[in-house]
Fold this sequence. Notes:
homodimer; disordered N terminus; globular; DNA-binding
Amino acid sequence: MINDDSEAKQPIKIKSTQDLGQLVREYRVAQKMTQADILGLANTGNRFIVELENGKPTVQFQKVLDVLDALGLELAVRINGSLK
Amino acid sequence: MINDDSEAKQPIKIKSTQDLGQLVREYRVAQKMTQADILGLANTGNRFIVELENGKPTVQFQKVLDVLDALGLELAVRINGSLK
DNA sequence: ATAATAAATTACCGTATGGTAATTTTATTT
DNA sequence: AAATAAAATTACCATACGGTAATTTATTAT
């Protein structure tokens, strides 16, 4: 491999629930966690994880926060384009 | 006033929907926008804005993105504590 | 290939979202 | 204080979220 530690450590912009789902899945997999692992930590059902990772637009905000937290991720709001 | 430009330009961590609502309201007011202004831009009803600003946990994710966008804000995900 | 593990789909269904629009309450302005 | 504007509340209600749990499909491992 060329670059062992290729995972970007910078914040990743979330423009859509698609972005969100993709990020969650990638990070979960990178962490070698299963969906079931998260179910327990985030207190949710399998349907939610699947729908979240598939980019469902209507997932509830707090539940997303729970899942992100279970993954060791956090959300931040910033001014458009700042820090690009 | 002691510090005229006191608004932090750094990303603001969102730990809860309370944080989110507070931030949205503060930023909206700072921008001298009314709730009604956002209704149009974000294609939503007054109920949503009120509930969002009041920290309702179950607001739908995509709608939140819409409102943030209308305010010129964006969401980012980062690793817990990175950039603290 | 088989077995085992993980992910996705589905049905059932109680509950809650959120739009609309009218009304009330609160805040701001003159 | 009156008037104006903004924010919040409410009722009505169609839509759909999301838990559970079983089933199916896909992926990984032996």
